[in-house]
C-alpha cells in the first residue's frame, strides 16, 4: 500500500465516512487514463455557462468560474467521486503531524505552467499569498480567502501588517509545507479548492491581464482572452504532465438565459448544456436517459444525477425587519417546497429540511425543524408577532432579489404566492447574476436566492463558509459568537467521528436561528450532444473535459 493510502485514514475523513455516502451518488466509470490519441484530437467541446464572476483563482467563487478553473488549474488535491476519496493532483503525496496542524505536500516532478515556467512549491506560496494579500486588488478583495483563514499568519497578512503568509513555506522546489494556527484534520480537502491553485510569477505583474487570461498548470490553457459576456476559449496544453485530454479545445459559450442556451444546443451549436425544467421530459425522450445520472454516452445523453448541493433563500440578518428570527421562521414555514419541486421541476428536486445535502457524511433528515411546509404554524407566528391591522394587512413587506436566468423567476414567483397566503407582501426584484451577487456581498438586499455546491464534500464546507461571521460566502451576514466558537472547536477536533458529531450539533444550533431558508436539494439536469462519445459530470457539476471523448 502506498504512502498516500497509508496516511489516508488519519489525514482525511475516516477511510472515508464521506466516501461511502458519496460513492452512492456517483458510482460510475470515468476514463481519466485515456490519452489524446484515443479520441478525436481536433474536437472542440462547446459548453454553455453563465457569465462567471472570476476565472482567476484569486476570486473563483461560484459554479461558472469553478467550471472554467477546473479545466485550467491542478490544485494539490482533488476529490474522486467514483472512488469516494481524495486523490493526488499537483501533489503526489502528503503527510500530516499527529495533531493536524502541519501538512507537507510533495509535488509531482516535471509539471509546468502554460507559459513554460516550472510548477514548484514557491508557486503555491505565491498563489496563496496573492489570495490573502489586500494589495493584490484593492478595488475588489477576494471573497474566498476564508478557505485558508486557519493558516498561520493569515490575520497579519489580511490586515496588511506584513507581506508574507508565514504559515506556508517551500523548503525546496518539490516540498510545500502548511502550518495551521489550529488543528484542522480536513485541511487536504480544502487544498482541492481552485482558489488555492498555484500561480506563476506573471500573475503578480498585471492583475487585470491575468484576470482575463490566467496562466494555469492544468490540462487546458487559455486561447486568447475572456470576452466578458460572450465566450472563454481554451485549448489543450500539449506539455501537460499527466493524462492528455482527448479533445483539442473547449469553447465556453456565455449565455445569461438557459432557455436561449438550450435552443442553441438543439440547433447543434453546443455540446453540453443545462436543460430547462419544461424541457426535461422531452429531452429524456429525444436524447435518452443516462444509466447512472453522471455519464453521457451515445443514446443516453440526458443526466439526472443527485448533486452535493442545496438551493436556499438567503436573508439579510442585519435588515431592520428581517433580523427577527420569528419572521424568518414564518417565511420558511409558509413555503410549499414539495409544490415547487413537483410543479416547477417535475419531481427532479427534493424538498430540503437541512442545509447539508444527503451524501455528505453527517447528514441527518429534517434537522432544520422549521424548514417544512406548515401554513397554520406560519400564520400563528405571524399573528403573534405581526398581527393584521383593521384592513387585514400585516405590514410585512420586503424584496426577493434574484437573477432571472434558469428557473429562478418561477421559484421566486411561487414563494411570493406562498408568502401572500399568510399575509406577507414580497416584491420581486430581478437583475443580472454578477450584479445580484455584488449586492448580496455588500448586504444591499433583503432576501435573495443562492445555491451552494460542495467545494469539497464535508459538512464543514457548508457550515463554515455560509455561517461563520465575516466569511465572504456568508451572504446572510449571520453572526453568532456561540456558533463561531463551536465551528472553530469542531475544526480543531482531530477524531473524525467526534468532529462530525460536533458539526451536527452546530448545524442544529444554526437551524434554530434560521439565518437562511433551505428550499430543495438539486439534481443536475444536463445533456450532451450526439458528438459526445463519453463524458462524466460529477456530483459537484464539474464536467471532466480532460477525459471527455468526442
Automatic annotation (TrEMBL):
Residues 85-473 form the Solute-binding protein family domain. CDD domains: PBP2_NikA_DppA_OppA_like. Pfam families: SBP_bac_5 (PF00496). Transmembrane segments: none annotated. GO terms for cellular component: ATP-binding cassette (ABC) transporter complex; periplasmic space. GO terms for biological process: peptide transport. GO terms for molecular function: peptide transmembrane transporter activity. InterPro entries: Peptide/Ni-bd, SBP_5, SBP_5_dom, TAT_signal, TAT_signal_bac_arc. NCBIfam families: TAT_signal_seq. This is ABC transporter substrate-binding protein. It comes from Muricaecibacterium torontonense.
Amino acid at each position: 500500500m502506498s504512502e498516500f493510502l497509508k496516511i489516508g485514514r488519519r489525514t482525511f475523513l475516516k477511510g472515508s465516512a464521506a466516501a461511502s455516502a458519496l460513492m452512492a451518488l456517483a458510482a460510475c466509470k470515468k476514463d481519466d487514463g485515456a490519452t489524446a490519441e484515443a479520441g478525436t484530437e481536433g474536437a472542440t467541446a462547446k459548453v454553455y455557462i453563465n457569465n462567471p464572476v472570476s476565472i482567476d483563482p484569486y476570486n473563483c467563487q461560484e459554479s461558472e468560474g469553478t467550471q472554467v478553473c477546473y479545466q485550467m488549474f491542478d490544485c494539490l488535491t482533488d476529490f474522486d467521486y467514483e472512488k469516494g476519496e481524495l486523490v493526488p493532483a499537483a501533489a503526489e503525496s502528503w503527510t500530516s503531524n499527529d495533531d493536524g496542524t502541519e501538512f507537507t505536500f510533495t509535488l509531482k516532478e516535471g509539471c509546468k505552467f502554460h507559459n513554460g515556467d516550472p510548477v514548484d512549491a514557491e508557486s503555491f506560496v505565491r498563489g496563496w499569498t496573492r489570495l490573502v494579500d489586500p494589495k493584490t486588488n484593492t478595488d475588489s478583495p477576494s471573497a474566498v480567502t476564508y478557505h485558508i483563514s486557519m493558516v498561520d499568519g493569515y490575520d497579519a497578512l489580511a490586515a496588511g501588517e506584513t507581506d508574507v503568509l508565514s504559515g506556508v513555506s517551500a523548503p525546496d522546489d518539490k516540498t510545500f509545507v502548511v502550518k495551521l494556527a489550529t488543528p484542522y484534520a480536513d485541511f487536504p480537502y480544502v487544498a482541492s479548492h481552485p482558489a488555492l491553485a498555484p500561480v506563476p510569477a506573471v500573475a503578480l505583474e498585471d492583475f487585470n491581464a491575468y484576470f482575463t487570461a490566467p496562466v494555469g498548470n492544468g490540462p487546458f490553457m487559455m486561447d486568447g482572452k475572456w470576452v466578458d459576456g460572450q465566450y472563454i476559449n481554451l485549448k489543450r496544453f500539449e506539455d501537460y504532465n499527466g493524462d492528455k485530454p482527448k479533445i483539442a479545445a473547449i469553447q465556453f459559450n456565455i449565455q445569461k438565459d438557459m432557455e436561449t442556451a438550450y435552443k442553441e444546443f438543439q440547433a447543434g451549436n453546443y455540446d453540453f448544456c443545462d436543460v430547462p425544467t419544461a424541457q426535461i421530459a422531452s429531452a429524456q425522450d429525444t436524447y435518452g436517459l443516462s444509466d447512472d445520472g453522471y455519464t453521457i454516452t451515445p443514446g443516453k445523453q440526458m443526466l439526472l444525477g443527485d448533486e452535493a448541493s442545496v438551493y436556499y433563500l438567503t436573508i439579510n440578518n442585519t435588515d431592520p425587519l428581517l433580523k427577527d428570527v420569528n419572521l424568518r421562521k414564518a417565511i420558511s414555514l409558509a413555503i410549499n417546497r414539495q409544490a415547487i419541486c413537483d410543479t416547477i421541476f417535475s419531481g427532479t428536486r427534493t424538498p430540503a429540511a437541512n442545509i447539508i445535502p444527503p451524501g455528505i457524511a453527517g447528514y441527518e433528515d429534517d434537522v432544520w425543524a422549521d424548514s417544512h411546509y406548515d401554513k397554520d404554524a406560519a400564520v400563528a407566528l405571524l399573528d403573534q408577532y405581526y398581527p393584521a391591522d383593521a384592513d387585514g394587512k400585516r405590514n410585512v413587506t420586503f424584496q426577493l432579489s434574484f437573477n432571472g436566468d434558469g428557473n429562478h423567476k418561477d421559484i421566486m414567483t411561487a414563494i411570493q404566492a406562498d408568502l401572500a397566503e399568510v399575509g406577507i407582501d414580497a416584491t420581486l426584484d430581478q437583475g443580472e447574476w454578477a450584479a445580484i451577487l455584488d449586492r448580496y456581498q455588500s448586504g444591499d438586499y433583503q432576501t435573495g436566492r443562492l445555491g451552494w455546491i460542495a467545494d469539497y464534500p464535508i459538512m464543514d464546507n457548508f457550515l463554515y463558509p455560509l455561517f461563520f461571521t465575516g466569511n465572504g460566502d456568508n451572504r446572510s451576514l449571520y453572526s453568532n459568537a456561540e456558533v463561531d466558537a463551536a465551528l472553530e472547536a469542531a475544526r480543531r477536533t482531530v477524531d473524525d467521528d467526534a468532529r462530525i458529531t460536533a458539526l451536527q450539533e452546530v448545524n442544529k444550533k444554526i437551524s434554530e436561528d434560521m439565518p437562511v431558508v433551505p428550499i430543495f436539494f438539486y439534481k443536475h439536469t444536463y445533456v450532451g450532444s450526439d458528438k459526445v462519445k463519453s463524458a462524466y459530470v460529477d456530483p459537484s457539476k464539474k464536467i471532466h473535459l480532460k477525459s471527455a471523448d468526442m
